[in-house]
Amino acid sequence: MSSPALFNRAILLPALRDAVWKLDPRTLMRNPVIFVTEVGAALTTLLWALEPDAFSGQIAAWLWFTVLFATFAEAVAEGRGKAQAASLRQARSDVQAKLLLHPDTDDGLYEKVNAQTLEAGDVVLVETGDVIPLDGDIIAGVASINEAAITGESAPVIREAGGDRSAVTGGTTVLSDAIRVRITAAPGETFIDRMIALVEGAERQKTPNELALSVLLSGMTLIFLIAVVSLWGLAGYSGTAVSVVVLVALLVTLIPTTIGGLLSAIGIAGMDRLIRFNVIATSGRAVEAAGDVDTLLLDKTGTITFGNRMATEFLPLPGVSAAELASASLLASMGDETPEGRSIVALAKSDFGLQDQSLIGAVLVPFAAQTRLSGVDIDGRHVRKGAVDSVLRFAGVTAPPEFTRAVDQVARSGSTPLAVADGARLLGIIHLGDVIKPAIRERFAALRAMGIRTVMVTGDNPVTAAAIASEAGVDDFIAEATPEDKLAYIRREQVGGRLIAMCGDGTNDAPALAQADVGVAMQTGTQAAREAGNMVDLDSSPTKLIEIVEIGKQLLMTRGSLTTFSIANDVAKYFAILPALFVATYPQMEALNLMGLSSPQSAILSAVIFNALIIVALIPLALRGVPYRRVGAAALLRRNLTIYGLGGLVLPFVGIKVIDLAVTALHLA
Amino acid sequence: MSINGWLQIAVTLALVLAVVLPLGRFMAALFTGERTFLHPILSHVERGFYDAAGIDPAQEQGWTSYAMAMLAFSAAGFAALYAILRLQGVLPLNPMGLPGVAPDLAFNTAVSFLTNTNWQAYSGEVTLSPLSQMAGLAVQNFLSAATGIALAMAVTRAFARSGASGLGNFWVDMTRATLYILLPLSIVVGLAFVALGVPQTLGGAMDANTLEGASQVIPLGPLASQEAIKQLGTNGGGYFNANSAHPFENPSALSNILAIWAMLAISAALPITFGRMVGSERQGWALLSAMAVLLIGGVALVYWAETAGNPIITALGVDPSLGNMEGKEIRFGQAMSALFVAVTTGLSCGAVNAMHDSLTPLGGLVPLLLIQLGEVLPGGVGSGLYGMVVFCVLAVFVAGLMVGRTPEFLGKKIEAREIRLAVLAVLILPLVILGFTALAATLPAALSSLNNQGPHGLSELLYAYSSAAGNNGSAFAGLNANTPWFNTTLGIAMMLGRFAYVLPVLAIAGSLASKTRVEASSGTFPTTSLLFVGLLVGVILILGGLQFFPALALGPIVEHVLMHASATF
């Protein structure tokens, strides 16, 4: 999927137009802080119209800018989603589908119909070059499919009837062969349709934390409304006539407009970050939950270890040197293009400095499922490596006791032994084992520091699982795991109030995916899995769970940091406006003018301008998110509190002073 | 300021600190239903009450029934007190033959003692009979304090329990608070006051011949016992109008230390009770530290402002070395007056040993602000603790998001419902204080009660409504509050400050109690660290105080700058 730059012309121009449309008070009502600002802007404009003067005109203008900047922030965030939606729409063109008339027979008769007229349950034929009309399951056939329209990845994937690779997505293209697909989603409810709705934010609802924060911001707005309205009475007692324009200016600068204006942009941007990461969440709630996750259930294979077993050791029989065994293994694997075969070649080269052998005149025996061995016939030698029983049969010998012992030992550790023979002579064993991904241990340590437990899920026996678990540094493991075990584990954790994330792809993962708080289904998985999870990973990479958690945390952190910043700003604004308000009645109030602002009008105007400009200045941060660091909560809090809390206290003092200098220099007030 | 003065302050606070741990642990044991050393003596009495009232002490109450019990109990208490005050003239134990109290004053006084405010729009010695003082006011001094403690325990259990529907039993909590805490402590402290020279008699008044040969009526009464519960229950309603500045209520420097100690003891120990009950005594210390930081800051500011004195008076040729001694008692001095001022307002006690109206503008700002911050430093018995919990919820919510998790406090997730209720609670004080003050400031009928004009007059108004809404009860004086307008509006302010605040807090408790308690991990925001204490202090100042800044600017702050410009009113 394309990832547009933070700002570009294609997004900014429509966003400016949308920002104006969003001024409609009926839509702004959803955001009480900005709504109050708009009411204030309207009120000051009215007062200015009744009694025009430069000061109230400027205040009114800047209040409108404040509102506009807030709606602009939201429009920019949405604009980035809209650009993505447009490219998705192209994939959902109105294709013709070949509706099979007799799906129960093999006659292959079909009728061409518009895809939009299909219903769930219909069976269609999709042949080379056809676009799959709607989401469905393959019921017959196998095909290679280009899914670039949704994943952005152009390498074809294989889909076939039965098993965990049977789901196909509407809008993707069949590259070879023909398949019969039973439609599972009606037009308008397909995966692509849902993706479009999500990236456009059409179904956007406030997430739980966003809702709570909105309540707090509304409450603060109400509190400051009380303070400002009561000030009108108190100032009257003190013999100060405070104009309504100034009171509105004070109110708007005190209420949390910064976070109020950026709140929805932050939410949309968080969702957007996930999408650019090729993960589709079905709701903002799921993204938020990702930040709260306490326990990660990670599949061993592909996440903790490489997807395939690799050669880790050569175990020669007595009387055979390790180098000789390695050399024979290398020869025997030259014709083996499986990942295991390649790993043997790589190990022989790296550990024994061997070179590729010349194979002139050699006869390669490639690996085959029937023979379960591979090798080479060269210079009269018949070198083979493969499954132990196959190699023994090939060599025609009975296994010596030390050979059997070594085989058992490797097998017991959860690894796979491969035997190597040169003609009738047994040379030894190759240890094929799980290789833990580099740096994964550090990754888990970082997660632990973040307060997240990692649990490895594997089909291995408990002894093997324990060995890998301790090597990888996970906190817990589920050995010989069945889908029921996963489900039970998730339920047990949830009883303790913990939130669980997991990923899965098979139909039998579906219950666990649905039970987990964050269930990430692989795009390559079954339809059932994709329906059950609340996120779909288009790259089908199980490691992503970790990044998803970080994106969720980043979303919450950005909200919290900007809220703290916004609230801390108030202190400086008071020191700008209050002395300005009362200095006419009490000239001694000048003592509170800490910033040395040039005149009361300039002070008030500068505070209002600062309040408006800070929203624009923070849009990039709101969209990009506050950077997340893999450290514990205490360190994170200290850091963010320093930057956004203390920074929020100090920055406006400087900012308002600078604006005041500019306002004075330009003779604006 | 002097080293000696700071030493006096330090010794007094150290005496409080010494009792915090044992008292806090004792209360935790008491309210979790464990046997304490007092049980052999008192458990029969306790059971007697339950039997007589038909209460099943094991019966758990949800937040609504807990609240209903509290409201019903308070309504009954109000009715009884109002009746006693109105009927005082025909009731016994009235040696001076005082008449019944006027309806508006009786309403104001009944609400005042019911809400643990003890705002007094009258002079006790010339308005109330010993019966009214003892059977009316003193009873509420016990019960309103016990109610506060009970409510705090209900809120504490919300965090201590996991997936629970009940918050305890109001009747049991109230009975235990009275029987095991307030009563025994009152007896001890009361006897100590007697030993330090505070009168305790049921005789009415004495006639004395003064040095000039004139005859003077000196009112007396059961002072020591009243004094003990007045301080221990953070009530603050004095037997005499002069309150703890009166030589009978507070005769010496030692009795002054005892008075301050008694004010602070329970409120300072309750955070430890909270910590212990939620399974983290450290949490209790963290809350207490945040309270202490702001309170001691307040003491320092008053002490500094008062010893710096008033340049206008210095200009008249008065020796400035003693500082501003107007309205202070020589036997307490600047340091212990400053401590008393800050403590009585940081707590919602409201007893006074110096005239707050006579403080310098900045010295007067401190008590005002300490009240407006929500009476949580450390606040009234019980009410301070649950107020602090509301601030914790808000602090954890704002900053907790910054670590990238749904905020949680003590393993309980803080979500929209809790925030909505917490906001509702913190809205009450600004609404009542600023609303009524602004209204009064525009009404000639209200303004005619003011002794002073200008910013000081505004401070007097602001102080009255702050004191009422914060359930403090101290007066800035300088305001004739015994008028129908003030009796009524202050009465309403007191009621809102107590009940409109505590109901949302109880609702939060109900909601939190039902949530599962999640163990902390390194991904959760630590709430026992120094950083959290700092954050909490910041949130109290910004969310609790900033909205009062404009009003304070027009009152004490502008008065301060004017004082240095030699303006008077």
Automatic annotation (TrEMBL), chain A:
Annotated residues for binding of Mg(2+): 505, 509
Catalytic reaction annotation: K(+)(out) + ATP + H2O = K(+)(in) + ADP + phosphate + H(+)
Keyword DNA damage tagged: no
Any one annotated GO CC term: plasma membrane
Protein residues bound to ATP: 336, 340, 367-374, 385
Record keywords: ATP-binding, Cell membrane, Ion transport, Magnesium, Membrane, Metal-binding, Nucleotide-binding, Phosphoprotein, Potassium, Potassium transport, Translocase, Transmembrane, Transmembrane helix, Transport
One Pfam family, short name: Hydrolase
SUPFAM superfamilies: Calcium ATPase, transduction domain A (SSF81653), Calcium ATPase, transmembrane domain M (SSF81665), HAD-like (SSF56784), Metal cation-transporting ATPase, ATP-binding domain N (SSF81660)
Family recorded in the similarity comment: Belongs to the cation transport ATPase (P-type) (TC 3.A.3) family. Type IA subfamily.
UniProt name for this protein: Potassium-transporting ATPase ATP-binding subunit
Species per Swiss-Prot/TrEMBL record: Gemmobacter aquatilis
Taxonomic classification: Bacteria, Pseudomonadati, Pseudomonadota, Alphaproteobacteria, Rhodobacterales
Gene from which the chain derives: kdpB
From TrEMBL, chain B:
Source organism per UniProt: Gemmobacter aquatilis
Lineage summary: Bacteria, Pseudomonadati, Pseudomonadota, Alphaproteobacteria, Rhodobacterales
Name of the protein: Potassium-transporting ATPase potassium-binding subunit
GO molecular function: P-type potassium transmembrane transporter activity; potassium ion binding
PANTHER family, A to Z: POTASSIUM-TRANSPORTING ATPASE A CHAIN (PTHR30607), POTASSIUM-TRANSPORTING ATPASE POTASSIUM-BINDING SUBUNIT (PTHR30607:SF2)
Task of the protein: Part of the high-affinity ATP-driven potassium transport (or Kdp) system, which catalyzes the hydrolysis of ATP coupled with the electrogenic transport of potassium into the cytoplasm. This subunit binds the extracellular potassium ions and delivers the ions to the membrane domain of KdpB through an intramembrane tunnel.
Alphabetical list of InterPro entries matching this protein: KdpA
Keywords: Cell membrane, Ion transport, Membrane, Potassium, Potassium transport, Transmembrane, Transmembrane helix, Transport
GO cellular component: plasma membrane
